[in-house]
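Q: How do we represent a protein-ligand complex in a form that can be generated token by token?
A: Start from the inputs.
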Amino acid sequence: MDYKGYIARKLKIDGVPQEELAEAVAVPPNTEMGDYALPCFKFAKIMRKSPVAIAEELKDGFETDGVIAEVSAVNGYLNFKINRKGLAEETLARIAKEGERYGGGNLGGGKVVCIDYSSVNIAKPFHIGHLSTTVIGGALYRIFNFLGYKAVGINHLGDYGTQFGKLISAYKRWGDRDKVQAGGIHAINELYVRFTNEADEEMEREARENFRLIESGDKEANELFEWFKELTLSYVKKIYEKLNITFDSYLGERFYTDKMQPVVDELREKGLLKESRGAQIVDLEEYGMSPCIILRSDGASLYATRDLAAALYRKKTYDFDKCLYVVAYQQNLHFKQIFKVLELMGKEWAKDMVHVAYGMVSLEDGAMSTRKGKVVWLEDVISKCVEKAYKIVDEKNPTLENKREVAEKVGIGAVVFGALYNNKIKDIVFSYDKALSFEGETSVYVQYTCARAASVLAKAGNFTRKADYGVEPCPQEFELLKALADFPDIVAAAAKAYEPSFVARFCVDTAQKFNKFYIDCKILQAEENVRDFRLALTEATLTALTNALTLLGIGVPEKM
Ligand code: ARG
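Then emit the structure tokens for the protein with arginine bound:
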């Protein structure tokens, strides 16, 4: 619950907007006086009164209710005490009632949000650099659906370009059908790397010819291309499965081959196309950007041309309310150009296009690049993390039955959480040891907290859920309840800011508060009403944390 907003709505100061009031309401360092406080010196000027007099005046005009139990004016501060018991009853009842839907809702009202994420390149390595787009996109996909939007997950495959001509040349020279079939994407990638290392002019010419053959519909060239595509997709789909990632569309760049000419025509009709050194461009100098190149001098289309065609197609097909592109910040300019060109074309919906940019992920040893064969495959990072997780689980709990399964959830969770915990624009350095630490801001810590809550509930067996436990929450309980009650707002804020990290932070924050409560307050040995209340709180915590981890695509082991 947004207490600050709630309090602000009940206060009135002429000339001070409500949002400003809400911002001024703070959580005091010492909550003995109140759970929230408004420092009144900020309004001394506008109200022409002393802070002490302002606090008194505001107090007299403030009516307490079921949410705010008490107000007091002390030294120019207006202090508010929350109705803790009311908060407890309301929150516990709501979480119990909504269960796995808690935190979601119908904010979206069925509006469509297209999300372009992961968007892998056929025949190229699926490497650590693809982690963020994949898991941020996947989390946003679930978050929007949870909030009642209709999310459309799009994997805009990189399946167009001269590299496929090169690949065909390489395969014809050095490839072996069975070996490539067995080696899959790795074998294809080796062929490609070999070609780039060894190609002379003649081979380059041949590669261009092979690409032309794909384009002109040549049967053999297309069969090879489709085969490479299939091998890549069957490989990445296995990783998507591990990461709990799904898509509604796999229409890649190639799909737009015949949809680019209409874009070029429309640009020309609208007088936006200009010739520059033989190329066709949209001049964006006026907007402080380099030109958006639409056709190269040899008539070939570009990445941008295909993205323009794709945007028009998505609008027509899905009539989206928003269209998101979860792509690294290196492509900032590209998306600014695309969105500007759409605007210049008169598409009023250009304003609904959003580049959800994120920072880079590297490993502690500095490895990350795809250059010169020094590729860190995402698959290897995942396996290594699962292996390490297995060792840790085995050490902590050697008699656990399904250790493999738990290690999968823990290891994969650590990779995903590592990419989601920080504000998405930050560059991050992934450390296996930090990601798998039980202490710290990790998914393991959150998962362990869930297992702890589940174990308390299992030990308790049945307990009575009541509308009124007759219990006034202690500070530890109150802090936990407040965190739990905030969850729906946090999910909504995460969607608004395109920041799954808000949900990840909720997980850690709530787990910390639960553990404080767990350590400080007896649960099972408490007298009956208090015991029931604490069990209900434990159950509510487990529900909220499970929902949050699920939104991030992270599994919750029952035992650890
Ligand atoms: N395949 C591209 C890359 O790896 C990302 C595509 C992003 N989506 C888009 N519609 N441009 O750089």
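The first strand starts at residue 36 and ends at 39. The pocket of arginine is lined by residues 116, 119, 121, 156, 158, 307, 310, 325, 327 (CB under 6 Å).
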